[in-house]
Amino acid sequence: TGFGSDVRDSVVSLVKGGVITGSNLGATGTDWPGAEATANYGGVANLWGTTWTPAEVNAANFGVVLSVTSTNNRTASVDYIQVTVTYSLPATTTTVTSSLNPSNSGDSVTFTATVTSGTPGTITGTVTFLDNGIAMGPGVALSGGTAQITTSTLTGGPHNITAVYSGDTNYSGSTSAVIVQ
Fold this sequence. Notes:
Strands 6, 7, 8, 10 and 11 form a five-stranded antiparallel beta sheet that branches. Strands 2-1-3 form a three-stranded antiparallel beta sheet, with no helix packed on it. A three-stranded antiparallel beta sheet has the order 4-5-9, with no helix packed on it. By secondary structure, it is mainly β. The N and C termini lie far apart (67 Å). Helix content is 3%, strand content 36%.
């Protein structure tokens, strides 16, 4: 931004759904510098006085508005405006259960992973089942929040069975383990 000792922000706000929304973060009491400079507004945890969904941020009618004032009719110029959005996927919890515990060598055992979240929505993606850190096969697609794998290849002794949910575009990944004797 630049030039003018009597040019000030009037409005620096975000646009949601085509409407100026939330807080005005403009520095209304501070003159712009007399030479080119960069101005930053908001920050990583600043929601600009409203709530956001991924769909609202990705919509064609999302944007930013800048309005300035000048007491001496100076011309203000802006080379570009950049909006950076920081977003964390909602957390998930994965639980894994065994259909048979303890098991004998060669028994058919089904492992079920259930993936849940406190955030509503359909959880998709895959779960990889590991036996003592080694994949028991390719990832298994979730169906209704669960994934299952059945095996009869377990040998005697303890097995640390881990279910690893990889996450999807709307939810973060999570892991759970169960010991089978």
